């Protein structure tokens, strides 16, 4: 029993009082837990859009002590059954309804969409076509290409649009605001400040005039050369609505875009190492931007 999780009767999935062997079967909200480079999610199957998600329910599911625990919730709903995605139903059958762990809604989640695709595939809810598997999000349609170990997603083209700063404790770091469908501030560390020394337990202070809806803040330092890519950086992130996480896919996209630009490159790949692993960001000759990394499902259960 997850004591901190509360949902109303209409949100329950009743699987029957007794299994065929006579044992009691739990009534409750079905979920799967998954992660991409340690950015972890509670996945809620809701194909017909019957679940009433509330900020309170999301926050209690994501509670790491009283709930299942996660950086966010991915509700798996048919585009046709969700008011924000119905217009995309002809292009993408499924809509990723993403929520941060504090119960706020975000436009996009780069790790989340890869985990979402893993969920669709493992549950035989979708089959990728020759051009990949489209998924509707609040930031538009992303297309996933499934590899042996990783899932690559064609993302929104990142757009750098302003200079700004983030303040962490006594340190103020200049950065670049980047729109990846959701807002980011990419701050390169200088003057011997080590990435590991930052205290990201508290939200970095940013300029609310530049980021009226909040922002995900990435801190970056250079990495050692890595074969097969044009650059390698190390990143930590404080996510809007979730706090410090082990990884952020859209954050890596923003960081990769700034790293390529700083190298004077319009195309190429950047390895972005986050505390939870490695993501690869690529800008290709066709002008498309890709995010690649692992996506793993770890458990399925019922919140009683
Ligand atoms: N972890 C995600 C980003 C999730 C949304 C973000 N916290 C926001 O509020 O914009 C990713 O992998 O991109």
Automatic annotation (TrEMBL):
GO terms for cellular component: cytosol. Residues 1-30 are annotated as: Disordered. It catalyses: (2S,6S)-2,6-diaminopimelate = meso-2,6-diaminopimelate. Substrate binds at residues 39, 100, 110-111, 182, 216, 239-240, 249-250. It is an enzyme of class 5 (isomerase). GO terms for molecular function: diaminopimelate epimerase activity. Its main location: cytoplasm. The record marks 184, 239 as: Could be important to modulate the pK values of the two catalytic cysteine residues. The active site is at residues 109, 248. Pathway: Amino-acid biosynthesis; L-lysine biosynthesis via DAP pathway; DL-2,6-diaminopimelate from LL-2,6-diaminopimelate: step 1/1. Keywords: Amino-acid biosynthesis, Cytoplasm, Isomerase, Lysine biosynthesis. Its EC number is 5.1.1.7. It holds the Pfam family DAP_epimerase. It is found in: Cytoplasm. SUPFAM superfamilies: Diaminopimelate epimerase-like. GO terms for biological process: lysine biosynthetic process via diaminopimelate. The keyword DNA damage does not apply. Catalyzes the stereoinversion of LL-2,6-diaminopimelate (L,L-DAP) to meso-diaminopimelate (meso-DAP), a precursor of L-lysine and an essential component of the bacterial peptidoglycan. Homodimer. Belongs to the diaminopimelate epimerase family. This is Diaminopimelate epimerase. It comes from Actinoplanes missouriensis (strain ATCC 14538 / DSM 43046 / CBS 188.64 / JCM 3121 / NBRC 102363 / NCIMB 12654 / NRRL B-3342 / UNCC 431).
């Amino acid at each position: 029993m997850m004591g901190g999780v509360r949902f109303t009767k209409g949100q329950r999935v009743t699987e029957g009082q007794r299994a065929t062997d006579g044992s009691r079967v739990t009534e409750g909200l079905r979920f799967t837990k998954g992660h991409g480079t340690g950015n972890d999610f509670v996945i809620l199957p809701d194909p017909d859009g019957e679940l009433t998600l509330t900020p309170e329910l999301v926050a209690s599911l994501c509670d790491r002590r009283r709930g299942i625990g996660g950086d966010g919730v991915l509700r798996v709903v048919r585009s046709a059954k969700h008011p924000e995605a119905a217009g995309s139903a002809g292009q993408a059958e499924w809509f990723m309804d993403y929520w941060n762990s504090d119960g706020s809604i975000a436009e996009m989640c780069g790790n989340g969409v890869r985990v979402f695709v893993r969920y669709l595939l493992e549950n035989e809810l979708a089959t990728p076509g020759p051009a990949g598997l489209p998924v509707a999000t609040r930031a538009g349609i992303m297309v996933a290409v499934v590899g042996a170990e990783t899932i690559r997603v064609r993302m929104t083209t990142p757009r750098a649009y302003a200079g700004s700063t983030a303040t962490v404790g006594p340190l103020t770091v200049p950065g670049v605001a980047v729109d990846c469908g959701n807002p980011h501030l990419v701050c390169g560390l200088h003057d011997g400040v080590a990435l590991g020394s930052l205290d990201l337990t508290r939200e970095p202070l940013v300029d609310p005039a530049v980021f009226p809806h909040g922002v995900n803040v990435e801190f970056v330092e250079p990495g050692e050369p890595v074969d097969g890519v044009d650059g390698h950086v190390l990143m930590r992130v404080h996510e809007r609505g979730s706090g410090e996480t082990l990884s952020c896919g859209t954050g890596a996209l923003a960081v990769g875009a700034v790293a390529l630009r700083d190298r004077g490159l319009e195309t190429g790949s950047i390895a972005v190492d986050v505390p939870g692993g490695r993501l690869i960001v690529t800008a290709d000759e066709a002008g498309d931007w890709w995010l690649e990394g692992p996506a793993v499902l770890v458990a399925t259960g019922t919140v009683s």
